[in-house]
């Protein structure tokens, strides 16, 4: 654990074996013994090494000079509007600064001052004013231009769909999937393999050579010149991108940071156009294309003579197709196990590194979970790893855990499958790679389903399901390995999908799964004769925009009628999908992995679920406040994974060491009674929260909710305070006949919003204990399960001039909650509005430590 930055700042330089090994390894790693000059000659002489270094950096950082950029950028369409400019140049508010600080992970690695996010959040009332002052000064006088402020929300409107880097909701995996489809088509597609090629360019020191004048011109023109020139050539027909069918998306280029993949016809004319554009780009930007590292991938059936002429014309002699694009194989044309072997090699190299020998079992657990298991994730998020690859990676992790090294096998006391169980079921929480792989690929399927207009989804649709839906698509003829992998992930995805009712026009009542009862289900048929084409929209009364209860009771059983009436359709919206295994309704890899594990019926899992009492004891081990290696030792003792006599006899091992005991349970019996107290779970003290000041002229409305399930009664209360924390007004109200806590929260927020409108409160921050509503209001795409609530609430909130909705804890919302609780606890059903705060809460409201 000494590697963690927090501990390193305190004891990192102590005279320990770890410190000495770290210094020696760092010294050896940083030592320069020889240089290679531009001609490839090696030298170890100090004077020559100095000259080589000087020449290299002078060549790298010397400006090549750039011509007048106005002509180069002429015709580039303006993408940043006046409204965008106003957003970019407005002054950053104290509320935004505070939200940014509180958005930092509290336990994140500390900065150069040794302070992590928790310090600034806990002592915001002390340091907040100074931090806000410094941040505002930076945006006014800092090195970066003021107009760069808040560019991220606008990037999707400025950056081309073929550029995936640095744009929210666009992933590097999109480029990998599209490029894989294109290269696969160059090998297998009858027409494309004869006529097309792909050029992968590599920029020499891309970020070091860029010219400042070019960046200034780029910002003025608001575009990427290389992309623009290519788009212009495409528009006038000088370059023809790969297009599977007429009317489908034509892909001409893919960009990610400094990696470029250009797709065009394998003709000398189109090659000459691309070479001219790249040459112009070099002149104005200062960048250089490394022809030695660039490659051309020709279609499988392109003539050899034509290949040679194109190579000579472009200056690129390397042929691609077997290399890597963005770190993954361009195409799986050979053994998948061999092509992915590099993952195993990187993992074993990390295990055999110098520091691995100094790690305790607790440190090994961290290394396996945080480092080793992260290595294959990048590949697993795009491709299905072969079983052999998963087995070799699993074997490497298991050998490392049990101290097995090259040539020395060690006994694995607990199977890896059992160690992959979560800690509450007696495992260590390691990941099963095959299940994790499927959960990651299901995420790709979810993105294709929920974002059908993305470039990746359009390419996949035109290739594999041009006339159908993603969920019904088949493998098709000669599919790529990427598509096979996505279909594998889809097998898991469909097991947790439910139709989300909008208009109901595209949901079949009997065939689609649109209800939920522990799993997504379709309703049972009450009648023998039924309409097979009945849609959900036929069950909705369009005049009153609610369910037609008479029709429901006529065709459904009472249990299904109850399920339907609890649903809130998003009237006027398209029907969509939601993921049922988390609250917000959007697929996550974590919930997908949980579903894959819960569907596992292996003997190991069944046996673990049968040993509840022992598993409870094992799970308490991890709550003991002690060193991680001690926790792992206790887990081993409870899992019969210690080399005691009883266990050794099963393997015919020597057991003459009498102190080794006959059973691991004796270890618990002889442990000092005082040590047993460490199993007591200490409760965490809640952090007291003080009043967080708002910017001047803004008000805060805290909303409290109390719901009685037995009586269907809801108590709601709100308190409004000014920017200094002074209580201005409060209110209380009761609601009857409410069947769920979510409905209670919705009614309370609607009532509070309408109250603010009637009291002319124009700039207000609502704080409420409702993560579902806060999530769907602020991030609607991430909470599809509550889409109907989000549409309703955002529509109402839009009538407030300036509003925010934030999540608050019970402790920070105690005043409003106690007002609401008085309805359900003391049956105070009379609604009222009053100035200030209630007298019986006066002491609580004026306290600087606990606020409403």
From TrEMBL:
<feature type="domain" description="RNase H type-1">
    <location>
        <begin position="707"/>
        <end position="822"/>
    </location>
</feature>
<dbReference type="Pfam" id="PF13456">
    <property type="entry name" value="RVT_3"/>
</dbReference>
<dbReference type="InterPro" id="IPR036397">
    <property type="entry name" value="RNaseH_sf"/>
</dbReference>
<dbReference type="GO" id="GO:0003676">
    <property type="term" value="F:nucleic acid binding"/>
</dbReference>
<dbReference type="InterPro" id="IPR002156">
    <property type="entry name" value="RNaseH_domain"/>
</dbReference>
<dbReference type="InterPro" id="IPR044730">
    <property type="entry name" value="RNase_H-like_dom_plant"/>
</dbReference>
<dbReference type="GO" id="GO:0004523">
    <property type="term" value="F:RNA-DNA hybrid ribonuclease activity"/>
</dbReference>
<protein>
    <submittedName>
        <fullName>Uncharacterized protein LOC108857900</fullName>
    </submittedName>
</protein>
């Amino acid at each position: 654990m000494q590697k963690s930055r927090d501990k390193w700042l305190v004891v990192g330089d102590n005279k320990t074996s770890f410190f000495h090994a770290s210094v020696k390894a760092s010294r050896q790693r940083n030592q320069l013994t020889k240089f290679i000059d531009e001609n490839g000659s090696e030298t170890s002489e100090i004077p020559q090494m100095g000259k080589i270094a000087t020449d290299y950096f002078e060549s790298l950082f010397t400006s090549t000079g750039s011509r007048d950029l106005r002509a180069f950028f002429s015709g580039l369409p303006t993408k940043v509007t006046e409204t965008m400019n106003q957003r970019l140049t407005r002054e950053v508010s104290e509320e935004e600064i505070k939200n940014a600080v509180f958005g930092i992970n509290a336990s994140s690695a500390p900065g150069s001052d040794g302070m992590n996010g928790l310090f600034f959040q806990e002592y915001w009332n002390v340091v907040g004013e100074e931090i806000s002052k410094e941040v505002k000064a930076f945006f006014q006088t800092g090195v970066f231009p003021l107009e760069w402020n808040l560019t991220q929300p606008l990037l999707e409107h400025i950056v081309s769909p073929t550029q995936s880097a640095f744009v929210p909701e666009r992933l590097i995996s999109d480029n990998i999937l599209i490029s894989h489809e294109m290269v696969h088509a160059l090998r297998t597609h009858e027409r494309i393999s004869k006529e097309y090629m792909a050029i992968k360019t590599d920029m020499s020191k891309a970020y070091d050579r860029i010219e400042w004048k070019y960046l200034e011109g780029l910002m003025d023109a608001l575009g990427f010149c290389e992309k623009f020139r290519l788009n212009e050539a495409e528009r006038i027909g000088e370059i023809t991108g790969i297009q599977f069918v007429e009317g489908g998306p034509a892909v001409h280029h893919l960009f990610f940071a400094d990696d470029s993949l250009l797709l065009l016809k394998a003709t000398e004319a189109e090659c000459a156009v691309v070479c001219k554009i790249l040459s112009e780009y070099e002149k104005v930007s200062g960048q250089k294309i490394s022809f030695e590292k660039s490659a051309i991938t020709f279609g499988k059936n392109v003539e050899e003579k034509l290949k040679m002429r194109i190579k000579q014309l472009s200056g690129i002699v390397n042929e691609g197709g077997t290399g890597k694009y963005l770190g993954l194989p361009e195409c799986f044309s050979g053994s998948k196990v061999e092509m992915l072997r590099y993952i195993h090699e990187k993992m074993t190299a990390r295990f055999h590194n110098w520091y691995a020998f100094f790690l305790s079992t607790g440190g090994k657990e961290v290394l396996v979970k945080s480092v080793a298991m992260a290595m294959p994730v990048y590949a697993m998020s795009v491709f299905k790893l072969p079983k052999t690859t998963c087995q070799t990676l699993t074997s490497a992790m298991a050998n490392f855990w049990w101290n097995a090294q090259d040539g020395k096998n060690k006994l694995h006391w607990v199977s890896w499958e059992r160690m992959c169980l979560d800690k509450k079921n007696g495992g260590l929480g390691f990941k099963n790679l095959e299940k994790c792989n499927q959960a990651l690929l299901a995420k790709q399927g979810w993105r294709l389903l929920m974002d059908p207009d993305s470039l990746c989804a359009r390419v996949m649709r035109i290739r594999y399901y041009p006339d159908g839906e993603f969920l019904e698509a088949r493998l098709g003829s000669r599919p790529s390995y990427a598509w096979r992998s996505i279909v594998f992930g889809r097998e898991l995805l469909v097991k947790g999908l439910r139709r989300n009712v909008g208009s109901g026009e595209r949901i079949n009542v009997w065939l689609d799964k649109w209800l939920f009862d522990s799993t997504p289900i379709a309703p049972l048929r009450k009648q023998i004769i039924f309409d097979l084409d009945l849609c959900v929209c036929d069950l909705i009364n369009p005049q009153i925009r609610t369910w037609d209860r008479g029709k429901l009771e006529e065709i459904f059983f009472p249990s299904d009628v109850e399920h339907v009436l609890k649903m809130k359709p998003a009237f006027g919206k398209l029907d969509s999908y939601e993921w049922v295994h988390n609250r917000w309704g959007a697929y996550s890899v974590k919930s997908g992995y949980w579903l894959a594990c819960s569907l596992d019926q292996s003997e190991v899992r069944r046996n673990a679920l049968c040993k509840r009492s022992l598993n409870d004891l094992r799970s308490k081990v991890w709550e003991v406040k002690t060193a991680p290696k001690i926790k792992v030792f206790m887990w081993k003792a409870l899992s019969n994974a210690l080399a005691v006599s009883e266990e050794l006899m099963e393997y015919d091992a020597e057991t003459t060491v009498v102190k080794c005991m006959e059973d691991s349970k004796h270890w618990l019996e002889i442990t000092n009674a005082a040590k047993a107290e460490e199993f007591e779970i200490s409760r965490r003290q809640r952090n007291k929260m003080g009043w967080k000041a708002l910017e001047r002229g803004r008000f805060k409305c805290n909303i409290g909710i109390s719901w009685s399930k037995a009586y269907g009664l809801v108590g709601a209360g709100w308190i409004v305070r000014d920017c200094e924390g002074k209580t201005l007004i409060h209110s209380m109200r009761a609601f009857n006949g409410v069947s769920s806590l979510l409905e209670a929260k919705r009614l309370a927020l609607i009532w509070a919003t309408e109250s603010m409108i009637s009291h002319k409160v124009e700039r207000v921050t609502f704080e409420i204990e409702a993560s579902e509503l806060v999530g769907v209001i602020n991030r609607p795409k991430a909470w599809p399960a509550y889409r109907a609530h989000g549409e309703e609430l955002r529509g109402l909130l839009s009538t407030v001039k300036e509003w925010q909705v934030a999540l608050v804890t019970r402790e920070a919302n105690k005043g409003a909650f106690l007002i609401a609780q008085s309805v359900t606890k003391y049956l105070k059903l009379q609604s009222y509005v009053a100035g200030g705060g209630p007298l019986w809460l006066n002491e609580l409201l004026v306290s600087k430590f606990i606020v409403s």
